[in-house]
## 1
Amino acid sequence: MPDYLFRATDASGNVVEDRLEAATLGQARYMLELRGFSAIEFYSPENVDDIQRASLSGTGIDPALPGDGTAGIEIAAHQRKGVAAQLLWALGQHAFIFGPLLLWNWLSWRGDRPFGWGDWLGFVATPLYAVVFGLMVLPLTIFTIMLEAAVWSDWPKQRRCIRLARLLRTVMRTGIPENELLFREANARAAEGDLAGALAHVAPLRGHPDLAEYLYLGRLSSVYEYAGDFTGQLRCVEEAVALNPDGTDGWIDLAAVRIRQFRDVAGARAALERIADREFPEMVRAVYLLTQGAVAVEAAEPAAAEKALVESQQLLAKFGLALIQAFEAELQAYLALARAAQGRGAESRADYARVRPMLLAGKRHTLVARADAALAAA
């Protein structure tokens, strides 16, 4: 982990200049605040001529705007990651294949001997692998960037990904389905305050042969969520469950909405009990346990909450999807609440500080405020 140089005033009024090891600038600042430091200044050691101050702000622990304090700095840093740079990174992960192929082609082209079958094989293999990369790797990479952009509420980047995905599908005749792209566009419009436009954007998908009504309603609930219309979100999920009562995901979604948006312990538990005896794939079980842990937190059962959340965390660690970041962030906030209620908030401070900017980017301000207060009092 990187070291962050800082100057700060401790609880006794002494000025301290030191370095702190942390995963991110946001985590470094939050760790110092929890230790009682104030007037915190961070410096960047990258400027060898003159140590340049990178961040100077007050002592509050809820700077939520980009460019203002630690959470904003980290949010802005994620939003500065360009799509092209991330695609080049993905290409670099395949350099161990492209590199030898291109070297093979170059040696064949520069050689004085006549072309042999091996030379022709190299010239055929290179474009073939480029096609494989375009068909299999690029769509997945674009989708991953799109998910990450949504997690950080970076809607311009998501729109660039959508344009690129459509271009790729036009050229390669494969890729991310149009239905998915339309819902992603609707989520962005809803998050930016245009709920009516977002709903109209996906209305033509209702009745689509590839999209059952309960699936449509499930996706529509996310549009309402991004708009902050949690009553509309709940209504969509309830209708989806009524149409597909034998499903599993719908009941988890229903429990999650009831507990996250309304802190309805009885309603959330009733939904989870409908599927309590089922066998789940690991990913689904992780989300089930996360929801179960959140319910236990709201029911003032911190030990049971911690048990469910830790098990969920272990399962989520097996997956690398960008979507897992959002689940992990929410999990750490609830885990901080559970441990703080047991007098062990210190165990969660570092992990919670790591995900706090992501929660703020996702407008989970109420959850952040509760976790902040619980850890401050622990």
## 2
Amino acid sequence: MKKSLLALLIGMCIQTAQAQVKISYPHLRQVFQRNNLNEATFSVLGNYTGTVDQVQAKLIPVEAGQGQPLDWFTLDAKPKAGLFQGSIKVQGGWYQLLVRTLVNQQVKDSTLLSRVGVGENFIISGQSNAEGTFRRPNDTEATDDRVIAANFFNYFKEYNPSTNNKYIGEYSLDYPMTEFRKIDSTVTIGPMGLSNFYWPILGDSLVKKYNVPVCFINTAWLGTGIKNWAESSRGLLTASQWAPEIYYPKGFPYANLKRAVEVFGQKNGVRAILWHQGENDAFHKTSYADYKNYLLEVITTLRKHTGMDVPWIIAEASSVSVQLSDGSCTPTLWSTDIVQAQKDVVSTSGVPFLFSGPNTEDVEIPRKSDCIHFSRGAYLTLADLWYQKISKQLDAIKTPIIPKAMPNIQIACSPNYELSVDLSTNFKKVTWLNASSAKIGTQLKNQLLGTGDYSAILEDDLGNQFTVPNFSLNTFPIPAKPRISVLGDTLMCEGKSVELKALGSGVNYSWSNGFQGLSQTIKTTGSFQVKTTDANGCISDYSNKVQVQTFPQPVASITTFGPYMLKLNTTQLDPQINYQWELNGVSLGEKSNLLRVRSSGKYALTLSKRYTNTLTCLSAKAEFDYTLPADGGMSIFPNPASNEVNIECINSLAGAEFLLYNWDGRLALQGKISQDGAFNLNLAGIYSGKYQLVLKSEGQVFNKSLIVVK
């Protein structure tokens, strides 16, 4: 088992060196505050290269028994733009975090974070017997790898000669999240720990009891009185009680405590503030009421400023002696008022989540180092006193501050192919920073970003900040423009249709005519293009155009043209039209717009028009029920007539001969008709009377009586 695990870790280390996948958050040796069920949920954020299908994570205890392993699970099912994110819920412990990317269910790249924990976080505060005294080369250190500090410093650099901490500048509040270290003799418990003091010993004891990592942050400030903490919490300058002409920087010492809760309380979570302070106030004879009121003010102001009801474990401490110029110590002073105020703040103030800490009044009296500060000989005792109180109070602190989740970073493609980034969070403001830490945006929604490295600073209504660590984004590839498959003919008659289908790998398709979908049926003339939207929301260019043209169908309608002819009912003939006449379903040979009819029946007309070599459009069939007149096949009108008479015949008139006889059989008029159709016979010179009109056509003779009236 050990050999296989070793092989796995060696492989992971090799892949880590290749930097194909990177964990940006959590940070190395970061400890997340567990709840009273011994579990915590923490965010994971990182980057990968290339294209991946999903990102998986796994937790392995650093050593057997240091937590509950968590086998591979999907951390991010749909990573985008080179960014993956997710969260892990795990039991208290000390873990290696393994992350791998997969493509087609095969591992592509992997990496690990060698140490991350779920355990206990404490913020130390007060004055020098919490802060520690001037560092020595062989400072105290933890024996267990799981005792952690944020290793940075923001006080006078010369007070802490360790070269192993990150010095961020005097009074700087730009607290780093990347400096967590095991507390060894070179580490600083930042931001204010002058020495490690007895805290590593306490850490070892707590780790041994609870089998979880423990992290300390130290905001204590030497020589401070409770008034300094209260006044600075109001944003005021506050004078040193030891040298009233000297003022602490505005907002300090409180600013360090507030910032520690703001930064580490939100990111890591915190079990409690460990408060050890009172010696200064005993020496300067602060009253019971003042001490109690000032301490309550600090507690309530901190909660108001941060929006977090961080529990406090308040030590009972007042014993003080100072060193005289000759090296001797003044007699030790104790203040029952201070100690009683500390007790009553916990027990009778009515402020919740306050707990009794150790009573250090009788520890190392007199103090061997410099009269006032604990010497190394007292460290074991002090650590044990704190251990006894914390272990007793831990279960009573039912509402530790749990770590806040990273905002969900939602990424989509903007119309100009930048990334449109939304932050899903309860924070109200954001400042986006580029790789040079320059401000580039303030949008919680639709922040446009290109390929590059970014971070963000979120801010709530109280002004508290929450940083999103550096991460990288890669813009999405522009999707290839789709093609259009044509199912049918793009040249067609009205009433017909053609199907246009998009071919591509997109998720959604938008057509130039407003249609949304993969395919559509087209029945009208137009030019059509389609563009695709991929899974990232990126929109392709339009496809090449497909031109669809519809041609009008001719319209057939039949009307009579005299008693023996049918015709197309139109006022304007189209020379491109072809005609197909039918009688009782049988095709006739006539190909013109006129049809001479010789029998009754159901006549029909179909028109056709040829637009191209491949396209001819047909009309709907028009039908007409025709009954042949009972007039012997010739019609004359008007009758009686005066100056002329119109002649129509069932036969063609072209070449027909007419003869007009008077009542006694004498020929009055004769002639030939040159063309078919209706013929107007001129009756000029014909007298009134009764006549017989004879028509000879196509071998037939037709007779009609005619009356002429002049």
## 3
Amino acid sequence: MWDHVHNYPLKQPSFQKKLSFAGSVERFGHLSNWSYSTPLDIFSESNYENSNPRVSFKGWKTDPELLFALSEGGFGLVWGTN
């Protein structure tokens, strides 16, 4: 969030052992087969059927919604289309 200029009111992040990924799951299909103990939140237009309790699909978010969700804590990667 440090390189995305904004003036949205965000939460004070808390330390959480989770990863967030925003981008195309089709380009990184292995994410839906996540086998690590760290929980993974995926923000993507894709709606995969998922039975993995460590993977949570959060759907597509607007910029303000995504920044607000990511500001809750954890570590993340936002991957653009190019």
